[in-house]
Design brief:
With about 250 residues, the chain is mostly helical. The chain contains ten helices and no strands. Helix 5 packs across helix 7. The longest helix is centred in the first third of the chain and has 29 residues. It is globular, with a radius of gyration of 18 Å.
Length: about 250
């Protein structure tokens, strides 16, 4: 299989894994028990999806690296996740703004990938889509509840959306990887996801009585490069914590 497919599997696997780690940081710190459990369950779904993508990537590479080796034994510049998922959690509104904007994109992407010409990509997408359908419903509901809540929650939610919005453009950028896979019928062009993503996001933000940021505000050049190994310092700190056990005791198993 191709280098492009290997890179694409890493992009999706790394993004799911990094976002899962971010959500796990809320364990024991959630605003309410029900929300804490829901956030943890979302994190578990994402780590399961990451395992499928990373296992697939290891098989494509053919160098004997399994999901654990790819997760724990790569350095920051070898990760290809989207920058939006590595952003620090901030307050709960910040976390939900990030989750909502990513979930809607993730849903529409996976829906396209269920039609992939590659059987493994299709299988992973079908399984993941069932989980992400729940993720997007939950995050949309919370955006509405927080946006159309108190005066304070409304103001803070608007700030969170505006801040996270600057990082969504990268999700819709195409490069040699997505273009080659699109030509092979394996993946979709990410730019083609924008219209349906924007329509869905706009409907939710309107219901939440929040202002919809301008399209041009989503495509800041400073907030791209994650899919090519260029990251913020936030990822380095996250990986240091996530990888400490495996790097302290190389090859350790349960």
């Amino acid at each position: 299989m191709s280098q492009e497919l290997f890179n694409y599997a890493l992009r999706l696997g790394d993004s799911a894994m990094v976002l899962s780690q971010r959500l796990c940081e809320w364990t024991g710190h959630g605003p309410a028990l029900e929300e804490e459990l829901a956030t943890a369950n979302t994190a578990l779904d994402l780590i399961g999806q990451a395992r499928m993508w990373l296992t697939f990537a290891g098989e494509i590479e053919g160098k004997g690296r399994d999901e654990d080796a790819l997760a724990y034994l790569r350095d920051t510049h070898d990760y290809f996740n989207y920058l939006i998922v590595e952003r620090p959690n901030g307050h709960y509104g910040d976390t939900m703004a990030r989750q909502f904007l990513f979930d809607v994109w993730h849903y529409f992407l996976l829906r396209r990938l269920t039609q992939s010409s590659n059987e493994r990509v299709q299988e992973i997408a079908v399984k993941s889509l069932k989980e992400v359908t729940y993720h997007v419903r939950r995050s949309m509901d919370l955006i509405v509840r927080l946006g159309d809540g108190t005066e304070q929650s409304h103001a803070r939610m608007q700030e969170s959306i505006n801040d996270a919005w600057k990082h969504v453009g990268e999700l819709f950028l195409d490069d040699e990887v997505t273009r080659v896979l699109h030509e092979q019928g394996i993946a979709t062009l990410h730019a083609s996801l924008w219209d349906e993503w924007f329509e869905q996001v706009s409907e939710v933000l309107t219901e939440a009585t929040l202002t919809i940021p301008a399209k041009e505000d989503a495509f800041h050049k400073a907030h791209r490069g994650g899919t090519h190994g260029h990251h913020t310092e936030a990822l380095g700190f996250l990986l240091a914590e996530m990888q400490v056990l495996q790097r302290t005791y190389p090859g350790a198993t349960w």
